[in-house]
Design brief:
By secondary structure, this protein is α+β, with helices and mostly antiparallel strands. It has six helices and 14 strands. Among the domains are: about 85-155 and about 270-300, no CATH class; about 175-265 and about 305-315, hypothetical protein PF0899 fold (2-Layer Sandwich).
């Protein structure tokens, strides 16, 4: 059921009676686990950056004799990474007549009773917030970086999938085995990642979730068993891999054929606050007639830390990639 564009009236937004159910998924597990829309760190500018450094390779022959001169000075060089905040802005416009109707059942139903929607404007604003959270979740995973030089196109934050360039395992269209996924963990581990047990996370889509469950939890003779733990308010299944206990996070926005091995401690939302307004604020817009118009506005981007502490597996196939229900072609929620 597509939405409507422009002002909502008593004709476009009829009331119904009875319980109100949401048929669109609202979950944003990655965003929730790293702080959510309200748990970000200040960005201070539309472009934000962070630093990282490395140490020299461990050397078994760095010993010195008694009275030796100090070795040649050797300083470590710091490097930086950056991303941008992207603008999320939604508007709600409701006529005076629609607001005046209250929560009585409308003409669209002959049943007596009341609607659970008491305040149409507030209800519509709440839905916009949910939609912004879903947009941010999608962008944090697969967002393509854009930092335009003028205001003719929007800024877009770099998602974690695009950010990972060092540790990449291309399956070439084959089904991953447990050895392939263990190899993914190894890539991240050898570059300093997945060392904190509470934040070691495998982020997968629904089809890949079934495959990982088959390999690590259901596989006969492995002796592994599924547990769970809470990460940032998100309850996640856990399993044992060669590098310790790992959280298994399923996210509908991870593309088919991809697995992301993440060190969640390096991920955080960065937010740009508007003076005297804050971040993701609501405000009324100018009145031009017998209606109220409001907007929600916020700027947010993803800090992903050291990309070498994460790893990704791409171009994989699973037996579950093409599973679809009879309602998979529905267009509910596809409108503006």
């Amino acid at each position: 059921m597509p939405g409507i564009v422009g002002m909502g009236t008593s004709f476009d937004l009829p009331n119904y009676v009875g319980d109100l159910f949401d048929i669109s998924p609202e979950d944003t597990p990655l965003l929730s686990a790293i702080g959510g829309l309200t748990g970000g760190r200040p960005a201070y500018d539309k472009r934000f950056e962070w630093e990282y450094y490395d140490l020299r390779t461990a050397d078994a022959n760095r010993q010195h004799v008694e009275g030796d001169d100090a070795p040649a000075a050797a300083q470590r060089v710091r490097k930086n990474a950056h991303n941008v905040v992207e603008i999320h802005q939604e508007a709600v416009e409701v006529s005076y007549t629609r607001q005046a109707l209250g929560n009585q059942g409308g003409y669209a139903t002959t049943l007596r009773g009341t609607s659970p929607v008491v305040d149409e404007m507030r209800w519509q604003l709440d839905q916009q917030l949910k939609q912004i959270a879903r947009d941010v979740e999608l962008g944090f995973i697969v967002g393509t970086f854009a930092e335009p030089v003028d205001n003719t196109s929007p800024r877009k934050t770099r998602g974690i999938a695009e950010a990972i360039v060092t540790n990449v395992h291309d399956m070439g269209g084959k089904k991953p085995t447990q050895a392939d996924i263990d190899g993914l963990f190894q890539l991240a581990y050898e570059n300093g990642g997945i060392q904190e047990g509470d934040t070691r996370t495998l982020l997968v889509g629904p089809a890949m979730k079934r495959l990982v469950t088959d390999l690590y939890i259901r596989k006969p003779g492995q002796g592994f068993y599924q547990q769970s733990r809470n990460v940032g308010g998100v309850n996640l299944a856990t399993f044992e891999c060669d590098f310790g206990q790992c959280s298994l996070m399923v996210d509908r926005y991870v593309p088919n054929g991809m697995i992301l091995a993440l060190s969640l401690e390096d991920l955080a939302p960065r937010i740009l606050e508007v003076p005297n307004k804050g971040f993701l604020f609501w405000e009324p817009l100018a009145k031009t007639g017998a209606r109220d118009t409001s907007q929600i506005y916020g700027e947010i981007g993803l800090e992903y830390g050291n990309e070498r502490k994460h790893a990704k597996l791409v171009n994989a196939k699973t037996p579950y990639d093409n599973v679809r229900g009879s309602g998979s072609g529905a267009t509910w929620g596809s409108g503006s």
